[in-house]
């Protein structure tokens, strides 16, 4: 049954390929445990990428602890599940944040795919084409290594694991990397709330060494960047704002800028890609492929 659904979905996506001029880069941001700043980093990454002129969507795939509405100080009334149930259109749920940046209120992957065999899902795929012009979609997943989280991690082009230099967080981050390594070879890390570049590199190298010994194989674990511990970050969260907006001169904002530059460089190196995997419909096609 699922194979038949995937075929129909493939036909639906392919039938619109001629209209699409680009493929969206899907970047999943995850963590081993909650409270390490995953959503704070996701939202600031999305905003900063949009400020560079890219068309960006940020998909809240952590419905149990959904807080991107708090980060962006907006109210969410309906999400993707309402679209799949026929209670709203895709356009109804999209929330414009700034120029080039759209928030897509989500739902957990396993819940979404319960509706994948209905006529509503086909209508959803057609409506989702309004997002086909996205250059990047940041997927803010739940923490941990649940089955539906793994589905998003498998479907993404890039996976970023966020952790802090705390023994419990590092242990959980390693467990997450170990699970991701069963799905894919490439994993990026962002070290959050560090005192310095030296501390970030030191903690990362310890994780990489343990991973190399115990996971081995072809695992390519890379340090994408670090975010310095900064009281302005927590101050921004309390103000329901982004630190990159409220404190543009802070060290944390400079750190996020460096990470964004690395992401843009990777985007520029990966221009030769299939244009049939665009926007929200492209993401759902991938999720179906991996289901």
UniProtKB/TrEMBL annotation:
Keyword terms of this UniProt record: ATP-binding, Nucleotide-binding
Superkingdom of this protein's organism: Bacteria
GO cellular component, one term: cytoplasmic side of plasma membrane
InterPro entries: FlhG, MinD_FleN, P-loop_NTPase, ParA/MinD_ATPase, YlxH/NBP35
GO molecular function: ATP binding; ATP hydrolysis activity
Positions with a binding annotation for ATP: 33-40
GO biological process, one term: negative regulation of cell division
Presence of the UniProt keyword Nucleotide-binding in the record: yes
Protein's recorded name: MinD/ParA family protein
Organism, scientific name: Sulfurimonas marina
């Amino acid at each position: 049954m699922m194979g038949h659904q995937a075929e129909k979905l493939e036909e639906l996506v392919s039938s619109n390929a001629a209209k699409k001029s680009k493929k969206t880069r899907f970047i999943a941001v995850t963590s081993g445990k909650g409270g390490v700043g995953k959503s704070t980093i996701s939202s600031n990454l999305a905003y900063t990428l949009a400020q560079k002129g890219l068309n960006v969507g940020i998909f809240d795939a952590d419905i149990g602890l959904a807080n991107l509405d708090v980060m962006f100080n907006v109210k969410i009334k309906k999400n993707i599940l309402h679209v799949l149930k026929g209670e709203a259109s895709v356009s109804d749920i999209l929330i414009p944040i700034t120029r080039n940046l759209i928030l897509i209120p989500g739902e957990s992957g396993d819940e979404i795919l319960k509706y994948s065999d209905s006529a509503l899902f086909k209508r959803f795929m057609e409506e989702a084409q309004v997002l086909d012009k996205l250059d990047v979609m940041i997927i803010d997943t739940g923490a941990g290594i649940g089955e539906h989280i793994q589905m998003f991690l498998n479907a993404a082009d890039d996976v970023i694991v966020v952790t802090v230099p705390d023994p419990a967080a590092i242990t959980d981050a390693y467990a997450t990397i170990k699970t991701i390594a069963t799905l894919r070879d490439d994993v990026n890390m962002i070290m959050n709330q560090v005192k310095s570049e030296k501390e970030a590199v030191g903690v990362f190298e310890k994780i990489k060494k343990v991973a190399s010994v115990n996971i081995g194989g072809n695992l390519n674990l890379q340090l994408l960047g670090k975010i310095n511990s900064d009281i302005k970050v927590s101050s921004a969260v309390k103000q329901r704002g982004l630190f990159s907006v409220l404190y543009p001169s802070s060290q944390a904002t400079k750190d996020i800028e460096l990470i964004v530059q690395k992401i843009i460089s990777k985007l520029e190196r990966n221009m030769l890609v299939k244009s049939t995997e665009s926007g929200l419909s492209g993401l759902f096609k991938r999720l179906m492929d991996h289901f």
